[in-house]
Amino acid sequence: MIQPANRTQGVKEYYFSVKLKEIAKLNEGAVKVLNLGIGDPDMSPSEDTWEMLKEACAHPKSHGYQSYVGIPALREGFSKWYKTFFNVDLNPDNEILPLLGSKEGVMITSLAYLNEGDEVLIPNPSYPTYTSVTNLLGGKIVSYPLVEENNYHPDFDALEKRDLSKVKIMWVNYPHMPTGARASKELLEKIVAFGLKHKILIVNDNPYSFILNDTPLSIMSIEGAKDCCIELNSLSKSHNMPGWRVGMICGKAEMLEPVLKVKTNMDSGMFYPVQQAAIKALAEDQSWYDSINKVYKIRRDLVFKLMNLIGCSPREDQGGMFVWAAIPKKYKDGYELSDKILKESKVFITPGGIFGDQGDKYIRISLCSSEAGIEEAIERIKEN
Ligand SMILES: Cc1ncc(COP(=O)(O)O)c(C=O)c1O
């Protein structure tokens, strides 16, 4: 047997990859599992986006390799998007780099900035990719707890008491997945001040800014941010385009240079029609976001009902694409409650522990199922 690289031992198969296999097995039975676990937007991108994709396929250049930095019009589209919705000025020539989804940004930013043994501040709970990528690259994880009592904001007093001299990167993500906590301008100011003071690269992962969040905020709008921050964004959630793989990274030109160096050695640009379609999507006005949020609001009310039915009381004030709630005390952890509901009602919800041990006593329900799907889940759970 040829031995895989040692670095693969620091990561496990993604939880959802394992769980989906289990669900596929259960689906061989008569009753199909209702999956309320995964944040995979089920609504369509806008009509204009679709039309542009089709039209651009006929372009003679559509099948060729594309520029590593995207076509200029796409970078301009991102730049206008940031100006319109975040009031941030970004030079489309050198402060924006289109990505194949923001997940790519987690890897290439880490490859560009991390040396083996460097420490990385990672929120607990958080998107598991920050941890797995850090592990793959031999970085040292320094997890910082986000707790409900502190509105899931970092505890800066506790962080200041640590030795921060080896910390290279701090991951930040507001609206926060999985807890739905939002950032205020004051919080972002504190984060930027922290990064500047300790010479830490702050990476704000911002894919949920338009979902159930009235005031989208970019860390790049904070004074001083360009000296220590970069930000990831994505059309996966804001424009219902998760499978299209369109994201971006922005920041000061010299801070993006090492990221670009990595990227040019890893992929060869984004499919031309997808770039053209993304430009259309980025040009949507506020009514686009209102239309998707109208649907998410209705679903959220239903998910609150479902949560109450299983003894959970979610906080009202949550942004993003999920509802997060503490489990009733009678369960050991979210895994126990999730397994029970899957077994008894054939409904899948996500145990909070997959996002870090601070999430052990929580569960997360996605808003990416239709009203009918959530209503059916409620009925199934009522019957058990
Ligand atoms: C916090 C967070 N960041 C990044 C991503 C990756 O999104 P994408 O690569 O589709 O832009 C996700 C996806 O679920 C996420 O929840």
UniProtKB/TrEMBL annotation:
Its cofactor is pyridoxal 5'-phosphate. PROSITE patterns: AA_TRANSFER_CLASS_1 (PS00105). Keywords: Aminotransferase, Transferase. CDD domains: AAT_like. It comes from the Bacteria. Residues 32-381 form the Aminotransferase class I/classII large domain. The keyword Transferase applies. One of its GO terms (molecular function) is pyridoxal phosphate binding. InterPro entries: Aminotransferase_I/II_large, LL-DAP_aminotransferase, NHTrfase_class1_PyrdxlP-BS, PyrdxlP-dep_Trfase, PyrdxlP-dep_Trfase_major, PyrdxlP-dep_Trfase_small. It is an enzyme of class 2 (transferase). Signal peptide: none annotated. Its EC number is 2.6.1.-. Belongs to the class-I pyridoxal-phosphate-dependent aminotransferase family. This is Aminotransferase. It comes from Labilibaculum antarcticum. The lineage of its organism: Bacteria, Pseudomonadati, Bacteroidota, Bacteroidia, Marinilabiliales.
